[in-house]
């Protein structure tokens, strides 16, 4: 019997407590998963007093994926390279940091039979989630990446960080209204990923601009998972692309976190729970 949790702020729209607790009940496990919405000034107290809660594992979300690293006793290789952590395993009072976001992204492509080796990718945005995407792409063998980013500096920093370990050719284009800027790079890309919050509930009418080109054969991956069918994906499908919703990334990063905490494989169970909750 153990307590697991999620820390971040705000957390009102998180699916994690619902699906984690549904899974524990289905498996007749006496575990419990709780959301801890922590304002930044509470973070220090939370970690200093963590032993009072007897927590076995934590998920970390926006805006603390890098900030929590200072409280860790040990970092996995992925966290060391990415400088971002979304899972903490607490063993005998020691805090061990993992990153399963990149795995969730890779696994979502793998189940659709999409290989990354030698492919070209295009990424909208350069925030925290883009870093996991870049890591997964580079690890999977993507050779060229183009970023279209409002803050190019952030894209360059992650290219330096990850490119040190997994060399990759990268180009960064300053985000502008003029989408002619990206016509050629996007038309040469095999995988196109939205890592911005554009299209996320309640702003479901927004989407990153896509040039007027044929998209057949390309894979469009939207990290936004609420709604499941974003405008970005609907538009891409109408032009012939294959669409993948961020719900799969969320599902597989969560399954991987459970396998780290409980030393077992939970992918099939998590898939069943997501189906039961009509999330996939
Ligand atoms: P973040 O660190 O705040 O990064 C957001 C990125 O989008 C930044 O590059 C930001 O640019 C850019 N952006 C925001 N609004 C924009 C706009 N109007 N026009 C152009 N660019 C804009 O957030 P994050 O953690 O990366 O999360 C991004 C999205 O991914 C969220 O919707 C989140 O729910 C989703 N996500 C999904 C999963 C999953 O498992 N499916 C996992 C993680 C995140 P600036 O840097 O200039 O602000």
Supply database-style keywords:
alpha/beta, Rossmann fold, 2 domains, 6-stranded parallel beta sheet, 12 strands, 21% strand, binds NADP nicotinamide-adenine-dinucleotide phosphate
Can you offer a commentary on this structure?
There is one protein chain. The chain has 280 residues and is α/β, with parallel strands linked by helices. The chain has 2 domains: 3-99 and 248-276, Rossmann fold (3-Layer(aba) Sandwich); 102-246, NAD(P)-binding Rossmann-like Domain (Rossmann fold). Helices cover 38% and strands 21% of the residues. It has 11 helices and 12 strands. It has helices at 16-26, 40-48, 50-53, 77-82, 101-111, 128-140, 152-163, 183-187, 231-238, 246-262, 267-276, and strands at 3-8, 32-37, 55-60, 74-75, 87-91, 94-98, 120-124, 144-149, 169-174, 191-194, 219-222, 242-245. The strands form 2 sheets. A 6-stranded mixed sheet has the order 2-1-3-5-6-4. Helix 9 (231-238) links the parallel strand 11 (219-222) and strand 12 (242-245). Helix 5 (101-111) crosses helix 6 and helix 5 crosses helix 10. The protein is globular. 42% of the residues are buried. NADP nicotinamide-adenine-dinucleotide phosphate binds next to helix 5, helix 6 and helix 10. NADP nicotinamide-adenine-dinucleotide phosphate (NAP) is lined by residues 62, 101, 104, 125-130, 149-151, 154, 175, 195-198, 200, 223-225, 246, 249-250, 253.
């Amino acid at each position: 019997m153990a307590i697991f949790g999620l820390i971040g702020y705000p957390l009102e729209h998180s699916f994690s407590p619902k699906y984690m607790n549904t899974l524990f009940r289905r498996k007749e496990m006496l575990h419990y998963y709780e959301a801890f919405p922590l304002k930044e000034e509470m973070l220090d107290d939370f970690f200093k007093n963590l032993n009072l809660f007897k927590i076995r594992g934590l998920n970390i979300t926006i805006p603390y994926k890098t900030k929590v690293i200072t409280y860790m006793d040990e970092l996995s290789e992925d966290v060391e390279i990415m400088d971002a952590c979304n899972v903490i395993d607490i063993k005998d009072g020691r805090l061990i940091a993992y990153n399963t976001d990149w795995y969730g992204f890779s696994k979502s492509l793998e189940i659709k039979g999409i290989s990354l080796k030698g492919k070209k990718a295009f990424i909208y945005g350069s925030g925290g989630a883009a870093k996991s995407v870049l890591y997964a792409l580079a690890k999977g063998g993507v050779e060229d990446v183009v970023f279209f980013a409002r803050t190019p500096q952030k894209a360059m920093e992650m290219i330096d960080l990850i490119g040190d370990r997994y060399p990759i050719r990268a180009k960064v284009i300053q985000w502008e209204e003029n989408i002619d800027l990206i016509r050629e790079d996007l038309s040469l890309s095999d995988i196109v990923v939205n890592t911005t919050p554009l299209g996320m509930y309640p702003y479901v009418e927004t989407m990153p601009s896509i040039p007027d080109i044929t998209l057949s054969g390309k894979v469009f991956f939207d990290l936004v998972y609420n709604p499941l069918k974003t405008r970005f994906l609907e538009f891409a499908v109408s032009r012939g692309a294959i669409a993948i919703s961020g719900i799969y990334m969320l599902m597989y990063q969560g399954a991987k976190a459970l396998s780290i905490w409980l030393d077992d494989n939970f992918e099939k169970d998590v898939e069943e729970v997501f189906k039961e909750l009509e999330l996939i």
